[in-house]
Amino acid sequence: MHEPIRVLVADDDRAIRLVVKQSLEACGCTVTLAENSTQLWEHVLAAGFDVLVSDVLMPDGNGLDLLPKIRDLHPHMPVIVMSAQNTLMTAVTATQRGAFDYLAKPFDLDELERTVLSAAREARQNAVQTPKDEAQADIPLIGRSAVMQDLYRAMARLMPTDLTVTITGESGTGKELVARALHDMGHRHKGPFVAVNMAAIPKDLIESDLFGHERGAFTGANSRAVGRFEQANSGTLFLDEIGDMPIEAQTRLLRVLQEGEFTMVGGSTPIRADVRIIAATNKDLKALVAAHRFREDLYYRLNVVPLTIPPLRARLSDIPDLLAHFNNRAVAQGLPGKRFDGKALSRLCAYSWPGNVRELENLVQRLCVLAPEETIGESTIAQILDAEPESENGTGTWRESGLKDAVEHHLTRYFKAHGTHLPPSGLHARVVREVERPLIELALKATKGNQLKSAELLGLNRNTLRKKIRELGIHVARNGF
């Protein structure tokens, strides 16, 4: 690009305006500033810009409300939305009203620069597509953490498409909620959403359940039965626990993905499959492929766009919002609401949540039904989590019984949280990782951040320790943490 990129930046925070201005000017842009919606609209009317970077909430209005008007006036000018209101609804609304991208505050300036340059390049190539202008309000996903922002942004880009998606996540993370949101906010929202759990259907009935059967196809097939693919026509078919699908059914599913049609069991007439397929699993599909338990060609057909839902332990900052959400839901069901004191909240945030969000939801429901007190304290939380609260000196009865018993105690709860189902594969690596991280952190703390002494204490090579610190994302500071 030979001409400088003209960028309009609108934000009511002077510090943010100046930092963004300096960053963009350093990469060759010319920047104009606006401190409210009125100034933003005046600049849009008065001059042409290559890119608009705008905050959502400003003193005199909502920046998202201006997006349709801006798109009408300058249909090829990309708009990048910044917001501290880091919810899926914000990301989706921004995308649906015509935003090129959505950046959650606080954002990385390098990411902003890359996004602005990419937006300007696409605009000058006349490759900006006009998104749909339809919004819906009831989004069941809760969380403002950075990992959830990444998920929201990916979902917002997928909603206008029919791309096949594979959602990966541990049990209880909300894979079906993500699939439903992709359907409800997509252009197929008027069609049916049909969910099928592969692990819950007897293997010899899966093909009939998915594709239907003709009369006389097998013993007991006294009439024609419509399968899930036909039920989901013009809508979305959600295939949960796809890793449990038998090889024979995988072959039939592959044909649907390749040719867009299927035949009923016992039938010969092809039926057109007008469905979007979203698959989900808590297993490592690549490992299943390597073990010849999952077709490699089907894996690549399903994994067009992979989405990973983080476990709750990776987004502990979302727990207060989740507590409020589940508490409000309980109140709406006629149950007494609860409050959580600071120590209770700290205890919840220190727990590893093997059952993820589902386990937290169950805990809130149990408290609303059984706990007599209005404000929940740490002792009540400890009793529910089947663990004694630590004393001030950091000891507790389970700790005194030894590390082996503590690990066994935790893993027993972990297996119980999954009920009759097995936990996700890769358990050994996850357990080792969870033990390894605090071990290295405590060694570094004890040696005041001295990696040479920490390596000696742990019995590791110094380079090995450095590699583990990098892989585990451990922050190292001299003189301790």
UniProtKB/TrEMBL annotation:
Residues 6-120 form the Response regulatory domain. It is found in: Cytoplasm. InterPro entries: AAA+_ATPase, AAA_lid_NorR, CheY-like_superfamily, Homeodomain-like_sf, HTH_Fis, P-loop_NTPase, Sig_transdc_resp-reg_receiver, Sigma_54_int. Gene3D superfamilies: 1.10.8.60, 3.40.50.2300, Homeodomain-like, P-loop containing nucleotide triphosphate hydrolases. Residues 141-369 form the Sigma-54 factor interaction domain. Transmembrane segments: none annotated. It holds the Pfam family Sigma54_activat. One of its GO terms (biological process) is regulation of nitrogen utilization. This is DNA-binding transcriptional regulator NtrC.
